[in-house]
Specification:
By secondary structure, the chain is mainly α. Helix content is 86%, strand content 0%. The longest helix has 34 residues.
Length: 125
């Protein structure tokens, strides 16, 4: 089970972080980020079946698919960055990155909103 390996990486990172927190707080944060990176790299191999499934729909309307994938990526990265900022004790930066991420999602998804309004307008006519 891969989740056990990933959880092991996080638990090991947390233990190392706790041990080194008293000696050097900056190292503690870097260990946490390194744990996230290692788990992410390990986990990327597991995404290939999902990406293959998504590629089947590229011919249908790649614009919609690209927007959805970008929005998902922005959401995950924003959450990760926000959590890191919160862990470092800077809640202002955390809220700022969340606001910027949400705004970026609105900007990227606006073409879908325009299509939806166009479809609704055509249906009303």
């Amino acid at each position: 089970m891969d989740i056990l390996k990933i959880c092991g990486i996080f638990i090991l990172s947390a233990i190392l972080s706790l041990i080194l927190r008293g000696k050097n707080g900056n190292i503690s944060i870097l260990i946490g980020i390194t744990g996230i990176v290692f788990a992410g790299v390990y986990f990327t191999d597991k995404l290939s079946p999902i990406l293959d499934f998504i590629r089947q729909f590229e011919n249908a309307d790649s614009t919609i698919l690209n927007i959805i994938l970008k929005v998902l990526g922005i959401a995950y990265l924003t959450e990760l960055c926000s959590s890191i900022c919160t862990d470092t004790g800077d809640s202002t930066l955390s809220r700022g990155i969340e606001l910027i991420g949400k705004t970026e999602i609105i900007i990227i998804s606006f073409p879908l909103f325009e299509k939806l309004v166009g479809i609704c307008t055509e249906m009303i006519k």
